[in-house]
Design goal:
The chain has 426 residues and is α/β, with parallel strands linked by helices. The chain has 12 helices and 15 strands. The site of flavin-adenine dinucleotide has 22 residues, from β7, α8 and α9.
Length: 426
């Protein structure tokens, strides 16, 4: 079990990592004297509107959505952008006005659609195109002029989440122009708020010299003396081997293809072939026990299947002992939860990525003390792996020990005529 404390710590760490301009910390989390949470129930969810006008529980919001949090008695102007087809203001306003808030109470919402031209001459521009346009002051000015005089006293203006991709303060600029609070409503993927977070995480990773290989599927692995020593990804041209001291399996579950069941009932971890908790070697029994035919009935037992781990997130075999050294499993691949019905998946992902008090992530497996290095999704090399291929990294480590930069170390060695190791290919 991941536990509430690890989940809360994982959530807070993530919020701190991306920073307050992108994610607002849990609004009512209180630390007690023991470092635990003050409230026995944990922090309360906020209620956010969705792109179809439903009401969704949400723990963390981007600052651009602070005004979108639905409050009893609130009055909202839902603004549609005519050239953005993923958002129908009339439907959102109608559904929100009809809904009762989960904590009780209701809101009033009305709709307005304006013809904002994100890209010149284009009649159908996607969310990212709108967001890129609104990174520029002249586009904010055009949108503000379309809304000028349309907002009634006491109304909060809610727009689809396209208020800037790279510039976080666009919603504030618009709010100042309109003299009313402005909030965003998240859209279907690719979500602009999600991309803002992804861009921030990419920048943080590259600042830590983590190499991210996008879109490469892990197709093979090599085990030596009970330890995973490398995985191989399918890359253009030829397979590519990635060696590391430690690997973090974060490949998700059935939805991502990390786990599969064939027509004979055999259930498999497609990445590393780890043993899975809750399955039998007898496929017929799996078909009988894990899948029922009542479509509208209880969640399928199959979706609880996954990798069992110990407290250090090491995958376990049927005997309860760690089964493969050098591997840690996190997120959707873990056994025991039906994530979409429990709405627990993101919490499990963040909580399981939070190292327990006893250090378990090997230091060589982390790009920084807080960031485990290697995932199955994006093969991020450990320092050891980087050293093998890029002599600059080895120089960096040697130099750091003596207080010099990698560049200084390189020049020092060249001056002293010391040989520099060339990159070694696998
Ligand atoms: C319909 C639906 C609704 C949900 N609703 C909620 C909700 O409301 N709240 C909630 O908290 N959770 C929800 N969840 C669960 C949540 O989405 C997952 O638990 C969460 O995404 C798991 O994150 P993850 O990073 O572990 O795995 P994923 O997000 O699945 O990411 C795994 C990644 O690994 C990659 N991968 C897989 N195999 C390989 C390979 N061999 N090589 C390289 N890469 C590989 C995949 O391409 C994928 O990018 C929902 C899930 C579904 C399907």
């Amino acid at each position: 079990m991941i536990g509430r404390r690890a989940t809360a710590a994982g959530v807070d760490r993530f919020a701190a990592l991306v920073g307050p301009e992108l994610l607002t910390a849990r609004p009512d989390a209180v630390e007690d004297a023991d470092g635990g949470e003050g409230s026995a129930d944990g922090p309360a969810n906020l209620w956010l509107p969705t792109a179809v006008g439903a009401v969704r529980p949400t723990l963390l919001v981007q600052p651009s959505m602070a005004a979108s949090v639905l409050r009893d008695g609130g009055r909202y102007l839902i603004v549609g952008l005519a050239r953005l087809k993923d958002f129908t203001a009339e439907m959102v306003a109608g559904n929100l006005s009809r809904s009762e808030l989960p904590d009780g109470g209701s809101i009033q919402a009305r709709a307005l659609t304006v013809d904002f031209e994100a890209r010149s001459g284009e009649s159908d521009t996607n969310a990212v195109g709108h967001a890129r346009a609104l990174d520029h002051p002249d586009a904010i000015d055009r949108l503000a002029r379309l809304l000028d005089g349309k907002v009634r006293d006491g109304e909060t203006v809610l727009l689809p989440a396209v208020l800037g991709l790279d510039r976080p303060g666009v919603f504030q600029e618009l709010a100042e122009r309109l003299g009313a609070p402005v909030g965003e409503i998240p859209l279907v993927p690719p979500s602009v708020p999600g991309l803002r977070l992804e861009h921030r995480l990419d920048r943080l990773a590259s600042a830590q010299r983590v190499r991210v290989v996008m879109g490469a599927r892990v197709v093979d692995s090599r085990i030596e003396r009970g330890r995973l020593v490398s995985v191989t990804s399918a890359a253009a041209g030829r397979p590519r081997e990635h060696r590391a001291d430690a690997f973090i399996l974060a490949a998700g579950g059935f939805e991502s293809g990390a786990l599969t069941m064939d027509s004979y009932g055999q259930v498999t971890d497609t990445v590393l072939g780890l043993p899975l908790a809750g399955v039998s070697a007898d496929g017929a029994e799996n078909l009988r026990r894990l899948i029922h035919h009542d479509y509208w009935g209880a969640p399928q037992g199959l979706f609880r299947v996954g990798v069992a781990v110990d407290k250090q997130m090491r995958p376990l075999g049927a005997d309860g002992e760690p089964v493969l050294a050098g591997v840690y499993a996190v997120g959707g691949v873990l056994a025991g939860a039906v994530r979409w019905s429990e709405k627990s998946g993101e919490g499990i992902a963040l909580g399981s990525a939070e190292p327990p008090a006893t250090p378990c992530w090997p230091s060589s497996a982390t790009a920084s003390p807080r960031a485990p290095a290697t995932t199955a999704r994006t093969q991020r090399r450990s320092r050891t792996d980087v050293r093998r291929r890029h002599p600059g990294s080895a120089l960096g480590s040697a130099a750091a020990r003596e207080g010099r930069s990698a560049g200084q170390e390189w020049r020092r060695r060249r001056r002293n005529g010391r040989p520099l190791a060339g990159p070694r290919q696998p």
